[in-house]
Amino acid sequence: MTRFGLIGAGGIAQSYLQAFQKTTEATLVAVADVRPEAAQAMAEQIGCNSYSSYQMMAENEELDAIILCTPPVTHLEISCYFLERKVNVLCEKPLSVDSRSAKTMIDTAEREGVILTMASKFRYVEDVIRAKSLIASGILGEIVLFENAFTARVEMRDRWNSNPAISGGGVLMDNGTHSVDIMRYFLGPLAEVQTVEGKRIQGLSVEDTVRIFVKSTEGVVGNVDLSWSINKDLDSYIRIYGSQGTISIGWKESKYRQATSQEWITFGHGYNKVQAFTSQINNFARAIRGEEKLLITAQDGLASVEVIEAAYSALRKTQWTVVNSAVNTVKELDFAKVA
């Protein structure tokens, strides 16, 4: 059984803890966190050792792999530390805060002959995998439009995710990495990106609401809504429109409808976080043992970092075209007469 260490005992680590309690492919032998009490509390839930630093864990445990659940700016240092010790690394998204550091991580893994990959839970959701197969079957015809939304009201003012010195960005860096990887999973390489920021409702130093527009190398267009400040209350988080039908991947069910029919056909039962995390651990453990291929590779992780970099560049360069409207001018004149 593959022996794992878990670094970082925050919120996302709790989902991994649940997954380790379900899997038969791997075992969690240690948890490390700079907050000793947090590491100990998590370790006690599963009956493993706890450490106050990842270095102590590395020195005292025989590890096949680690899962890195620390803030993005730490990913380069901690990943390379373990890769150089020939320990395989599953790094939470984003792989890193910029493509240069992500490439360094990949080069280190290749030099040491171990596996580095980025966590991307939505690739392991059963409904997402089924939807990919349905599209490959040609049932939707030519794919024309991709839509994705990850929006929820979340108080971010006291969380590290909104501190750019730690996170590398705001909602675009955080949730946007999931969106970009999902788009690449369905559409292939992405060629162009545009990003528009909405109002900063929470007064953060980073963006809390953005819309991303993309075009794939195959000419498929897509748009993504990301927000920590609004909730769109949608049943689905992915919709893919083709010339012959539509697929809707939802939180509680997934379905498709062909253009020749009024009936929606259900093919999935929605998003199951524990299932996704468990499948992700299983795939990584089997890949380490040479039993199957990774569903998401380090190169996929790098590609996501590159798209997010381009999205931030687009965000800083966004230009709007002024609408020359005679109608608006007339209305302004009328209001002036009334006054």
Describe the overall structure.
This protein has 339 residues and is α/β, with parallel strands linked by helices. It folds into two domains: 2-120, 3-Layer(aba) Sandwich (Rossmann fold); 122-272 and 295-317, Dihydrodipicolinate Reductase, domain 2, CATH 3.30.360.10. The protein is built from eleven helices and 14 strands. It has helices at 11-20, 36-46, 54-60, 75-83, 99-112, 126-136, 164-167, 171-187, 273-288, 298-317, 326-338, and strands spanning 2-7, 26-32, 49-51, 65-68, 88-91, 116-118, 143-151, 190-197, 209-216, 221-227, 236-242, 245-250, 254-258, 265-268. It has an eight-stranded mixed sheet with strand order 8-9-10-7-11-12-13-14. A six-stranded parallel sheet has the order 3-2-1-4-5-6, sandwiched between helices. Helix 1 (11-20) links the parallel strand 1 and strand 2 (26-32). The radius of gyration is 22 Å and the shape is globular. The mean pLDDT is 95.
Main attributes?
339 residues, alpha/beta, Rossmann fold, 2 domains, six-stranded parallel beta sheet, 11 helices, 14 strands, globular
Q: Judging from the principal axes of the Cα atoms, what is the shape?
A: globular
Biggest sheet statistics: 8 strands, mixed
Encode the helix/strand succession as letters. EHEHEHEHEHEHEHHEEEEEEEHHH
Proportion of helical residues: 25-40%
Number of strands: 14
> What is the typical, i.e. mean, pLDDT?
95
Q: Find the CATH superfamily of the largest domain.
A: Dihydrodipicolinate Reductase, domain 2
Between the first and last Cα atoms, what is the distance in angstroms? 80 Å
Low-confidence stretches: none
Strand content: 15-25%
Structural Rg: 22 Å
